[in-house]
Amino acid sequence: MSEAYLVEACKKGDNAARAELYRAYSPRLMAVCRRYASEREQAEDWLHDAFLNIFGGLNRFRWQGEGSLGVWMERVARNVAIDSLRKRRTLAFVPIDETETELKDVPEPTADDIDRISDDDLFRLIGELPEGYRVVFNLYCIDGCSHKEIARLLGIKERTSASQLARAKALLAARIRLLWSNEELGIYCS
Q: 96-184 architecture in CATH?
């Protein structure tokens, strides 16, 4: 079934179309939720809430060609995750002075360095970042949001977004280098 057909059928309350939409997009949306969640159960809850919002909001969706539905649904899932974090007040940003010494002089990985790490290890390391770092990193690096957009979404200052991103990158670089040094010593972390 095409995206356009699925949208129209779901708008009419067709449960078979809703099931098809869920089957087709739940893995993709779960990946979005997992990027922001600290635990799988939390991501599963957000996925459920995202689909409730999607099915309830399809009348607001404007189909703009193949692919537009998936992009819109990803945005809904991301917003569910961020709204949940804000409402629970669990979105903590690490103060500048707490990380300054820990991350001082950590070089950013080069393109060759990045090629050495598996996707699974990279996503695991991103998932282990402190929550504020992880959310800003995902919004900026993966979702392509500007610091201005991130500040608006999270209710923080643009400068806070920029500093959290810089610290997230530095911490991620340090953990990647630690992973490599452990692998070179024969110690496997994954």
A: Orthogonal Bundle (1.10)
Tokens 């309830």 belong to which residue? Answer: 56
Locus of tokens 């050495």: 116
Give the long-range contacts of residues 118-122, CB within 8 A, separation 24 or more.
118/190, 120/190, 121/179, 121/189, 121/190, 122/176
pTM: 0.77
Residue boundaries of the structural domains of the chain: 3-88, 96-184
**Identity of the residue numbered 144:** G
The C-alpha angle 101, 106, 107, rounded to 5 degrees, equals 155
Rounded Cα–Cα distance for residues 53 and 59 (Å)? 11
Per the model's pLDDT, the better-predicted residue between 164 and 178 turns out to be 164
Can you tell me which residue has the tokens 């949940």? 84
Residue range 1-21, pLDDT digits in tens: 788 888 899 999 999 999 999
